[in-house]
Amino acid sequence: MISLDAHTMVDYFIAISLFVLTIVFAHVPGARTLFLGGAIALTLYTLLSDLPFTAPKTLLPYATHLALDGVLAALLVFGPWLFGYRADMSTAETATHVGFGLTLFLSMAITNRHSALTWPDVREDVLRETDDRPAELAQK
Questions:
Q1: How is the chain split into domains, by residue range?
Q2: Environment class of residue 51 by beta-carbon count within 10 Å: exposed (0-12), middle (13-18) or buried (19+)?
Q3: 39 Cβ partners below 8 Å, 6+ apart?
């Protein structure tokens, strides 16, 4: 299992990679469009999610974030066939396309969901456990 911190970093890594892939796949308009749209969407919904390293005021619960991860992962895995541009890509390019989708699926599958559902409570528990002040001061 990976932590929420790691899940968030994987999301940002994939978003940056998708931006870079818009240049690599410039000769395949469908792939370029999907990568650019996916990069923008992933960046925005990650920033707006209740996760570490995101905007202070969150709008999306973690369950919604995971659902959006699943939709984007499916689009990345099946996009070349779904949108009809597989014939314009080499096998290695198709493998890259599918690989990023599978990485996103894997990130979803191995994230510790229990801590994700109680993230604010986990942060408070950690702060309480690491607070070495006397009890009467720590509760103020």
A1: 4-114
A2: buried
A3: 15, 16, 18, 19, 22
